[in-house]
Amino acid sequence: MKRAIRTAGRWLLALTLAASGTGCARGGDPAPEVPARTYANPVSLPDEWGEYGLGDPFVFKYDGYYYLYVSTRDTDAGIKVWRSPNLVDWHYEGLCTEDPLTTAAYAPEVRYWNGKFYMYTSPAGQGHYALVADSPTGPFKIATDNFGRTIDGTTFVDDDGRWYFYYAGSGGIQAAPMTDPLTVEPEEARPARTWMGGPRGRPCSSAAASIT
């Protein structure tokens, strides 16, 4: 008899929980819609560099479209670019440059300035070149000699219009002022801090430096 009572009690508890759960679902916010498509890392796109994939991706927005540039496989020249209206559907636009100097072009980045598109890349991590084009899909042409600064360079334009070139150096993240989009000055910017701020201001790296 006790066993029957315990069994009945378990069923009653289960039904009560099910009913309460159903009530919460009906009375609460509607269940989110399941997206028609999902993705999983690593992201892969048609026409990527084979086993090299989409190394060092850089996304640049211009005139309502997003442009994706990636590092070039060590054995090849040229830089690939894709275009997307929504960051989901990507169309391969081909090589935006085929210059031999872009063999193993690492971490290409693009900035639009006064009607021109400027690209900065570090072939095999051996210094940097700047390239210029009239369109985000190129053709980009080499516009400078190799101006060094190791690898993984990027530009920053301050509110006062001054340009800076950041890069990965022996002392961590380093920076140098620029007189224009194609000229990096020889001196280094003076470090103001030896850390990089993380969430809620907490340091997340001791190898970075900001500038004043």
Strand content: 35-45%
CATH class: Mainly Beta
Helix-and-strand structural type? mainly beta
Radius of gyration: 26 Å
Q: What's the architecture, going by CATH?
A: 5 Propeller
Helicity, as a percent range: 10-25%
Strand order, sheet with most strands? 1-2-3-4
- CATH homologous superfamily descriptor: Glycosyl hydrolase domain, family 43
Describe, in plain words, how this protein is organized in 3D:
Belongs to the glycosyl hydrolase 43 family. This is Family 43 glycosylhydrolase. Residues 192-212 are annotated as: Disordered. GO terms for molecular function: hydrolase activity, hydrolyzing O-glycosyl compounds. InterPro entries: Glyco_hydro_43 (IPR006710), Glyco_hydro_beta-prop_sf (IPR023296), Glycosyl_Hydrlase_43 (IPR051795). This protein is mostly beta strands and 212 residues long. The chain has a single domain (50-205), classed as Tachylectin-2, Chain A, CATH 2.115.10.20. Helices cover 12% and strands 36% of the residues. The chain contains 1 helix and 14 strands; from the N terminus they run αββββββββββββββ. It has one helix at residues 2-27; strands at 58-62, 65-69, 79-84, 91-97, 105-113, 116-123, 129-133, 141-142, 151-157, 163-169, 172-180, 183-184, 196-197, 203-205. Strands 1-2-3-4 form a 4-stranded antiparallel β-sheet, with no helix packed on it. A 4-stranded antiparallel β-sheet has the order 5-6-7-8, with no helix packed on it. The protein has a 4-stranded antiparallel β-sheet with strand order 9-10-11-12, with no helix packed on it. The longest helix is centred in the N-terminal third of the chain and has 26 residues, at 2-27. It is globular. The relative contact order is 0.09.
